[in-house]
Write a structure and sequence with these properties.
Length: 441
């Protein structure tokens, strides 16, 4: 009998791409030995899932493709296949630029990728996943594409129109994940609050959260990538009253200036945004809010940026990331605005904003000293448990670091606690992470 072929995937970009890779792997894992990403051994096929959102991401994806091609030239791989946003966006240019790649595929239809791997796609496996995350948490992509037309964003013409996954399919997927040991779900999409409009003619995210919370084994559900316009407030009711829905909301706001928001085509103004944040904090006491901001968008003057700083100072976001405006070909912004703000000024504004946020994050973390928290153990390294509470999402937020204490754990193998919930007390903090001690396991 011939040896089983080896397949290695490399996934770049956001967690939505990670889910796409896991769906493809679930279709082919019985035909291949899946080699973990980063493991440097010869394989039969390298499959790259690329990102094409902004300049830095595109450069990273192209570099990864070139490195895979180099491995092929050295005899460390027989075939290189590429799919995802980059190859969708540049489907005509890339095959000519990098002809050594054996197959280029888009970001919307995975059946050709599966067939290129020598497997016929199975509809019965459409809700199955091959996890590439730790076994206790997973991302759940509830829709594809986006109907928004933000002026700076290329996603709608890369990923297409918004298309929700039916609730029954998502529940079946969650049940399959729970059977694998998953206890925490991160609900993701290009816009999670738009969920259901195409299928049910209503925003159905709250209904979906309720259904997911009824899946045995799922203990935490957190929401990412929520668009502020027409935000469905019944989601806040779920967050406030459903113990499985984490008091955590990732809601990219991008700016607060009316002029800049209008230029961005965000369909909200500053007053709406402030009122939404007020409602979130009122209806869900203790909620952790994560947001992102863009600095240097065309039309952002000094007054607009100072208004952004003042808003961030007042709103006190528990988590905030920011990036500089990047002109992307094909977007409304690239075709209708002049990118007239210099990179130097963009960088200065970014630094100023993130310096402010660092002080806010430090103050927030220090306010948590003395609290007792339910946390999930993500890892154990060098005598330290790496944990998170309901207020931290994996891969993007800080961590709660807990020193191994044999006086508390006794003969318990610390590695056996990975993926389990424990009680800890916070005893220290910096701007990123918390330090805690075990109270109970």
């Amino acid at each position: 009998m011939s040896a089983v072929k080896k397949l290695q995937t490399i996934t770049l970009g956001c967690s939505k791409n990670k889910v796409d890779t896991e769906h493809i792997l679930s279709q082919v894992d019985s035909h291949y030995e899946i080699v973990p990403e980063g493991e440097d051994i010869p394989v039969d096929v390298i499959l790259l899932n690329t990102c094409g959102f902004i300049g830095d991401a595109k450069e990273e994806s192209i570099q990864a493709v070139l490195e895979a091609v180099e491995r092929k030239k050295k005899g460390e791989a027989s075939k290189v296949l590429v799919f995802g946003c980059l190859s969708q966006r540049y489907s005509h240019e890339l095959p000519e630029l990098i002809p050594e790649v054996d197959g280029w595929f888009g970001a919307r239809d995975f059946d050709p990728v599966i067939r290129a791997l020598g497997v016929e796609p199975s509809d019965s496996k459409r809700t199955e996943r091959y996890l590439t995350t730790p076994s206790h948490y997973a991302y759940l992509k509830i829709s594809e594409g986006c109907d928004r037309r933000c002026s700076y964003c290329a996603i709608p013409f890369i990923r297409g129109q918004h298309k929700s996954v039916p609730i029954e399919d998502l529940v079946a997927e969650a049940e399959g994940l729970a059977a694998k040991g998953v206890k925490e779900l991160m609900v993701i999409a290009q816009d999670t609050t738009y969920y259901g409009l195409d299928l049910y003619r209503r925003r159905a995210l709250a209904e979906l959260l309720q259904k997911l919370s009824e899946v045995d084994g799922i203990e935490w559900i957190r929401i990412h990538y929520s668009y502020p316009a027409a935000f469905p407030e019944d989601v806040l009711d779920q967050m406030a009253n459903n113990p499985k829905v984490c008091r955590y909301m990732d809601i990219p706001l991008q700016h607060i200036s009316d002029k800049v928001l209008d230029n961005m085509h965000r369909h909200v103004d500053g007053a709406w945004t402030r009122e939404l944040i007020r409602k979130m904090r009122e209806k869900v006491p203790g909620v952790a809010l994560r947001t992102t901001m863009i600095v240097g968008h065309p039309g952002e003057g000094k007054r607009d940026f100072n208004e952004l700083l003042k808003f961030v100072e007042e709103a006190r976001f528990e988590r905030l990331g920011a990036f500089m405006y990047s002109e992307e070909e094909g977007t409304f912004g690239a075709e209708n605005f002049k990118d007239s703000i210099s990179n130097r000024i963009k960088q200065e504004r970014l630094d100023q904003l993130m310096t402010l946020q660092s002080s806010i994050s430090l103050e927030y973390n220090q306010s948590r000293v003395g609290q007792e928290l339910k946390v999930i153990v993500d890892d154990f390294n060098d005598g330290v448990f790496v944990c998170r509470s309901e207020f931290e999402s994996p891969e993007v937020d800080g961590e709660i670091l807990v020193k191994y204490d044999p006086a508390v754990l006794g003969s318990v193998d610390p590695y056996s606690l990975i993926g389990e919930f424990i009680q800890v007390k916070v005893i220290g903090a910096d701007e990123y992470d918390l330090i805690a001690e075990i109270v109970e396991i």
